[in-house]
Recover the amino acids of this structure.
């Protein structure tokens, strides 16, 4: 039973990651179509740019979480086991927040 939950959770995370990257690719393509400039230098693909943006967002969130941890002097373990993987908790939280960021932006923009 636990193995099924682990597989379902892993599949859910992969689906969210895929959808987040797809949204970022679509957003990047819309921006490129609006500019319609002739590229002077080689351009990266929309997918590679989406991954770079995801990691840049996660990195910024990670730094903010580290500053908050140091400011509040919170003790957090160096590594935790999640689904059999050793992860740094702050990095994992930052990546999860970065994955959900496009969805949150969509919800906030819709409500305003």
């Amino acid at each position: 039973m636990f193995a099924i939950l682990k597989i379902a959770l892993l599949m859910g995370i992969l689906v969210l990651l895929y959808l987040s990257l797809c949204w970022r690719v679509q957003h990047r393509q819309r921006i490129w179509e609006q500019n319609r400039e002739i590229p002077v230098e080689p351009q990266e693909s929309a997918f590679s740019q989406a991954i770079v943006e995801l990691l840049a967002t996660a990195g910024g969130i990670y730094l903010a979480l580290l500053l908050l941890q140091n400011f509040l002097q919170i003790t957090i373990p160096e590594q935790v086991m999640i689904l059999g993987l050793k992860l740094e908790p702050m990095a994992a939280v930052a990546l999860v927040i970065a994955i959900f960021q496009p969805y949150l932006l969509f919800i906030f923009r819709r409500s305003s």
